Amino acid sequence: MKAVLILFDQAHYSQIERDLSKLNIRGFSAWKEVYGRGSRTGEPHYGSHAWPSVNNAIITVIEDSKAPQLLRYLKELDTEYGNLGLRAFVLNVEGMV
After folding, report:
1. I need a labelling partner for 15 at 20 to 30 A (CA). Which of 4, 37, 59, 85 fits?
2. Is 56 within a domain?
């Protein structure tokens, strides 16, 4: 199993949530109003007067075979809307209850 942590501009939330279902990925947890800034480029997302944008985050645990398809989808979304910012990290899941 793989855990995929997706961090993205709040503008992507509805689309990503909808498209997870289209990719047959049902389970996820989400956080709204996640603050930060990219390590290479992009504007800070602090939810402040100076930097009003904020991020959201979604984590999903999926079968290993679904991870490449999800990452391709996220890469395409990031390429299409590169100015918004999107990052995804894949982690090995050692066990689940």
Report:
1. 37
2. yes
